[in-house]
Amino acid sequence: MPEQPAGGLVRPDVTASDAVAIALDHWGIAVTATELGSNQDRNFLLTEGDGTRSVLRVDNPVFGDSARDAQHAALDAYRAAGVAVPAARPGLDGVLTQRWRGLSVRRSAFAEGEAMVDAGYFAPVVLREFGALAAASVNALSALGHPGLDRRHMWDMRVAAEEARRLLPSIGDPALRGEVEIAIAEAERALAAVAAELPVQPVHGDLTDDNVMGERGSDSRLHPRTVLDLGDLALGWRVAELAVCASSMLHHEPERPLRVLETIAAFHADAPLSAAEGRAVWPLIVLRAALLVASGWHQLAIDGGNDYARERIAGEQAIFDAATAVPLAEVVELVLDRLGFPPAVPAPAPADAAPGPLAALLPDLGGDVAIIDPGVESEDLAAGAWLDPDAEDALVRAAFTRGAAAAVMPYGVYRLTRTRIDSADAAATWPIAAVIHLPAGEEVALRAPASGRAVPLGPTAVRILLSEHWALEIAGAELRGPGTTDVVAGAALGVLAASARVRSLVVRVLSTEAPAPPAGAEGAHLVEPDRVPAWRRFSADPAPWLGLPRLAQEDEASAELARRTRIFASAQERYYERPPQIERGWRHHLVDTTGRAYVDMVNNVTGLGHGHPGVADAVNRQIRILNTNSRFLYRELAEYSERLLALLPEQARRGDADREPLDTVLLVNSGSEAVDLALRLAQAATGRRTVVSLREAYHGWTMASDAVTTSAYDNPDALATRPDWVHVADVPNRFRGTYRGEGTGARYAADLGADLDRLAAAGRPVAGFICESVLGNAGGVLLPDGYLADAYARVRAAGGLCIADEVQVGFGRMGSTFWGFEQSAVVPDIVTIAKPMGNGFPIGGVITSQRVADALATQGQFFSSAGGNPLSCRVGIAVLDAMAQEGLQDNARVVGARLADGFRALAERHALIGPVHGEGLYLGVELVRDRTSMEPAASEAAAICERLRELGVIVLTTSERSNVLKVKPPLCLTPASADVVVAALDRVLAEGW
Question: pTM of this prediction?
Fold first, then answer.
């Protein structure tokens, strides 16, 4: 077996001038040459006069012809399997390998694309594609046979521990050297248990982000395409191909190493791994990382001028830090769980049923045992109580106040009380133990809840070995006994000492193979959601031994998504590629079932914020008293209607020569119904049918509101399928419309006037003109100065009515004004409102004049079963009260300005950000590929939203081109959360998406 010298190689002494001569002498081409990086060879980019590019490789002399011939055979195998590789270019004599001054040189086609090693963040889809590419590599090479494959070299993962240990002295940092040495030993021990079971075959050996060229996809991301550099091709463990590839993913977001499970799972899908290979993956990743660090230091020692090696040092260090960030045993179990392999030894079950709640552990306990619910859906944590640092203690105290003799914080219930808001990272929320709290009182006897070998773990903790592989541990009691001994269930263990304070016992069932549990308050040891699958295998619910119900939870978002998919129509939208399961909200935060919190930047429906206690109380009170329909007489309908009218500007309530006062309210259930009703009112009041709507508008989903919805995003055939009573006018978008820039309002209004004249001449006089007061569907684009006043005047002169759709932009969201139409200093004839009226409760409404409303009588009586009922009115009143008491309109003004300033500051650093639209808390960040052409960055916008969700921010896209990040959060958004959003967007734009 040919052998590569240990300890790294010095690159051949070949210059760019030499490369020019080689290309001319052996391939007959005149080129310029630029050196590319390599640790042990020399690579040059050759560029011919016509721009044609190729790559010249000068092999290190340690490699023989047999190895090169094997690489050529592997290239053929890759091509036959559909794996993209550069074509080898034979020399003038038709031979692939040429000789120059005793060195072997080869030339290959230049692989088009972009380098992936410095591409920053990799999205999950990219991580999966690397795994699939590694699988395609082993599948393509599996049948390859060649004597040149059987060679020993330092990057063969079968000798990685040996090579890394040999290079340890090169690491100049003693602390780092110690860490690497420990990591090598631990990974080597883990591999020793399975090494004999690992299949050997030809592998690329260096299939990393540095040896794959990427190609931009339709999603704007860089995707792996072309495999390069077969210099490490040899026989090796099949699973090593995956480990080497996966290790190179780690530095793309080193603080989140477990994302690399995506790569491992994708490999397994196409090249199924055995359980032994599954156990070997992460130890091999650790060894690869250790070898990279050690060899990097060594390479600089023997080849100090190697800039390529010097530039790679930081990335190699990041790979090692990420590979060792989570205990090795834990990551191995995470891998096995992701691949679908069951635990090696499942947790045992109790031999006998427990006699009653805690009776097996605390037989003298008198009274009831309360099971505390600290979970995401706990009713005891309403109104933000979960954010109180004392929340868990408060739950326990409340249980004691109700007379409980003990209060149990259960194992495996994601704790909302540990949720962290305004954070890019998920908090540790899943407990691996049950915690039993007892009130202050006398001494309480403690007994063994199971039989086994009892081993003291100190004066206040004991472990009872249930089997060779599992143990039950109890901590917090004063132990009394002879030390290590066999015990039977019910045997005395000690006491919980008398105390004037609340006392606690921690009970957990752990595998004897479990690593040290992460530290946690009160000994509960909580883990982050992405680490739960491992600890579900390392631990078991102690509830059966304690006579308690099993309550442990798991993240069921995938199952819930599958369930919804089965019953939803394809036209029903959902957010995100892998949506979290949201089951709680508070103010401007959403919380998923694992206790992960997100800043909610899209829910303009809940204007007050989620879970508002005033609204909840209003619903609870009114639903217990009365809820009927508006044909009955009750005070809430008039009270709410009067409150709405009082919010109109004085000019609107007073009326003038051009229009009547707005003094009548009609209540319905939604914005779509409100728009539908407004259109009917306009047609009934004018005796005409034609309604003018603006291009790119969204107004609803009923037949009529959809008819005036012209957005191609919502309906690609919208403009071609409008009914004959709808006329579509140009949208006055000064950023993307027919006329751009300032001072365009009059021109757009003049065009609208010309449309009205043509309609009248054609016998289709206008009944109504409907327009959002701010172009919400475009992302909060403000109308050009003077446009709406001019447009309203022209519509009224033509005998039509002006409808302001305030469903999205009204109700205090603009900050400086309560209504969007106030931005343009106009008063409409009809106003439609909905989304924030009920803070999530379905309320919609129309405000108009008595005369216009009475015109509806010509078409029969108006009635809405739920619109204006006592319950919806009482909710609406509660919303108005809260808006005033909490100063939410002013908060929208202040925090909205802060957000807009932050976004505009980002635009100075990130060219992808174009205009920042809107005002208050209706903003839009438009993403463009070029600020001059305004080419929409739609795919980038969608990908950025996915990355922002990973960082704890919910933002989605809007506009005809779907390239605007819509920013319309609950009006209670805080300055701190606004800053978190801006920082997250900055991070995504800097690191990638």
Answer: 0.94
